[in-house]
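Hi U.,

Before I forget, here's the chain from the pilot set. I'm dumping it here mostly so it's searchable later in email.
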Amino acid sequence: EGMKGKDKFLIRKPGIIGEEQFRKYAVLVPLIDTPDGNFLLFEKRANQLRRQPGEICFPGGKLEPDESLEKCAVRETMEELLILRQQIEVVGPGDIFISPFNLMVYPYLGVINVYNNTFSTDEVDEIIKIPLEFFLNQQPTRFESRLINQLPEDFPYEWIPEGENYPWAQGIYDVYFYRYGNHTIWGMTAHIVKSMVKLIDKYNLCR
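Structure:
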């Protein structure tokens, strides 16, 4: 009560500049414990979907207004895998993936209990289970994509030193691929896998 502006400022959680221009998504990275060990669960997106049909991804979706990121990840997982809230045990948040294409993805690690391979055929073509062990022992193949700075025609070169010869920085974006059998996990999902598997290992989250 009655905290001064300075005191409030001291304990504020920093935001990200330009954050409002990013689309925000939350995904669940589902772990399944079976007699054969721990598996990560992926979905192959239905072919009739407008966005990224046939891609392999985690359950998740776009953040709704007034919804927490964790709730979003859980809600989407329930809808896509046709499971109940009490089947999902959220272990905690992974690291945020920021795409150079104005997208922020917030992954949550979750254990799905008594899962009977159900899924919504509207959104999902099939579910794919891959042993966690595979990712723990396997580095993804990496390709480098260069980000090109394309300026508008009316860019005010006269306002900057060196004008049209200004030496712009070049961005680099890693594209990762994991190949398991005839499945390819790549792009954003592969970035999230790589990061989350490292956290699972570091925090010893699988017995």
